[in-house]
Specification:
The protein has 20 helices and four strands. It is mainly α and 537 residues long. α1 packs parallel to α7. The longest helix has 40 residues.
């Protein structure tokens, strides 16, 4: 029975897992190319590490410095992102096959057979552990193929896998606590972000070595799975036991999740549902208002992320001159990514590229919600009213557009506030305006792409849409860092959005972006006229 359940899960997940694993392996392989091309000498790597340790804000979002060799610097550069990809893959997998199946009614059908209630969750645990094992082995092989030291390469793969297992357990617990898959996924993402920041704070609060190439972290890192991975210090001390904490933690949580499942009814959660109003407010009298009500919580969360990005962009730009004067390697790195004028403008451009990614994620989440409503059957209730399918989809596209505007506006207002007291406030304010609006336009591309996928390949909406964002991020933000050819970065809307160079506005691919958005919106809405609903999830 277990083997049958595993085959069923693999049949459902093979494409999604393939994309997640390939993206992680590609990041590992490209990271090696980026380090060897951008930081070819020991002097370059030492300068970057010294600059990072001098700036706590940057330090929070990077790995743990453990030396300046190629392998050690690679671990500092990409280990946090490898573990984050493994964590996201694992949490989504855990929720999809537990709480998601309960919402869709599949879990009750399976539990009514001789399989029972516990075995499907056990199959999900085995499935998740196996997926992380494959991910870890392929990451290690990619690093070994780049001629890096074997012990460190295998440890990099192992820490990626064990962090994924830790978050597999977190996802299983979240699925028991929350009543909906959306709530469970939201809880796991907040835990992921929180533990990532805790680990960063623990590294910032640590003690740097005399040569500024290594940090002894504070005790705070030991409460974060990301901290356990980094304390293994691949290519340095190669301590395997911290990585095993993630494996043990994830398996213990998995056992607890199975026990919790036996103590509740199918469809219920340990966090009680918030009682709703008996009668809807007058403002919910339209399908557009309903979409807004279903997604406003997510929009607020993305807007907060946008505001943080904006304030960091302008506050960090004030430190750019000092860093570049002592560490030209940092300036070269930022110029590769930002392609703007002076270094302060480049810092703002880089952060606002990250803002474009945040806005795109908000848009994809909202448009993908249409697929969730269709799969769960609730879209039929709306369409049973005098609401056409085109009107229904257009409401999701409009709310997604509004979400992008809100996220970008929050970032721009925060960035303007961060310019108070800056000697170059006027010129940087122009950069914030141009780049902010440009990245908002780039994010709109993902509204129409997700809409097209929803119309043409509804069952692949969520997986394909998020994959497109991931690929655009890799090519647009990390492509120059990893030394990818310049022509590949043009596939990313984020890298062709308008910028300011030496005081002049460079529109670059603005009109292409406008054309893609207009054509994509028209095509998705036009094709929706003839598409039938597909409620099977």
């Amino acid at each position: 029975m277990l083997s049958t359940l595993l085959k069923q899960r693999l049949r459902r997940d093979w494409l999604q897992l393939l994309l997640w694993i390939l993206a992680t392996v590609l990041m590992a392989y490209a990271g090696v190319a980026g380090v060897t091309q951008s930081y070819a000498t020991l002097k370059d790597r030492v300068e970057v590490l010294a600059a990072v340790m001098a700036n706590p804000v940057i330090m929070m979002f990077r790995g743990l410095p453990s030396g300046a060799s190629e392998g050690q610097f690679l671990s500092f550069e990409i280990l946090p992102w490898l573990t984050m990809l493994a964590a996201l893959m694992s949490t989504f997998l855990a929720v999809r096959h537990t709480r998601g199946d309960e919402e869709a009614g599949r879990a009750e059908l399976v539990a009514a057979t001789a399989v029972g209630r516990a075995l499907p969750t056990i199959a999900t645990i085995v499935h998740g552990v196996a997926a992380n094992l494959v991910l870890g082995v392929l990451v290690a092989l990619a690093l070994l193929g780049s001629k890096l030291e074997p012990a460190g390469s295998w440890l990099m793969g192992a820490t990626s896998a064990t962090t994924g297992v830790a978050f597999l357990g977190i996802g299983l617990i979240a699925a028991q606590l929350m009543r909906t898959s959306r709530g469970a996924n939201a809880l796991t993402v907040w835990i992921l972000v929180g533990t990532f920041l805790i680990n960063g704070i623990g590294n910032v609060a640590g003690t740097p070595s005399d040569d500024l190439t290594r940090i002894s972290s504070s005790g705070l890192v030991w409460v974060s799975p990301f901290g356990w991975a980094e304390q293994a210090r691949p290519y340095d001390t190669n301590d395997g036991w911290p990585a095993l904490l993630g494996l043990a933690f994830g398996l213990v949580l998995a056992v607890v999740a199975v026990a919790l499942q036996s103590a509740r009814d199918i469809g219920e959660g340990f966090v009680p549902a918030r009682p709703g109003r008996v009668h809807a407010r007058p403002g919910l009298s339209s399908p557009h208002a309903l979409v807004w009500r279903l997604t406003n919580g997510a929009i607020v969360g993305w807007a907060v992320g946008g505001a943080l990005t904006g304030i960091l962009a302008t506050k960090l730009s004030g430190l750019a001159g000092q860093i570049s004067g002592q560490n030209p390697a940092v300036q070269q790195l930022l110029e590769k990514i930002g392609k703007a004028g002076n270094l302060e403008e480049t810092v703002v451009s880089v952060f606002f590229t990250m803002l474009g990614i945040l806005a795109a994620c908000a848009a994809v989440q909202i448009v993908a919600r249409a697929r969730q409503e269709e799969a769960h059957g609730t879209a039929e209730i709306v369409l049973a009213q005098p609401v056409s399918r085109v009107r229904w989809l257009s409401d999701y596209l409009l709310v997604a557009t509004a979400a992008i505007a809100i996220v970008v506006a929050a970032a721009m207002l925060a960035a303007y506030a961060g310019l108070a007291g800056n000697a170059h406030a006027s010129s940087l304010a122009r950069v914030v305006t141009v780049v902010g609006l440009g990245q908002g336009l780039a994010a709109c591309v993902f509204i129409v792409l997700t809409g097209l996928v929803f119309v043409l390949l509804p069952r692949g909406t969520i997986g394909i849409a998020w994959t497109l964002v991931l690929l655009a991020t890799v090519f647009g933000l990390f492509g120059p860092l990893f030394g990818l050819p310049e022509w590949t970065t043009r596939f990313s809307p984020f890298s062709v959005a308008p910028i300011v160079t030496d005081g002049d506005t460079d529109l670059r691919g603005t009109w292409w972006l406008v054309l893609v958005v207009a054509a994509g919106a028209a095509a998705s809405l036009g094709l929706m006229r003839r598409r039938e609903l597909q409620t099977a999830g």
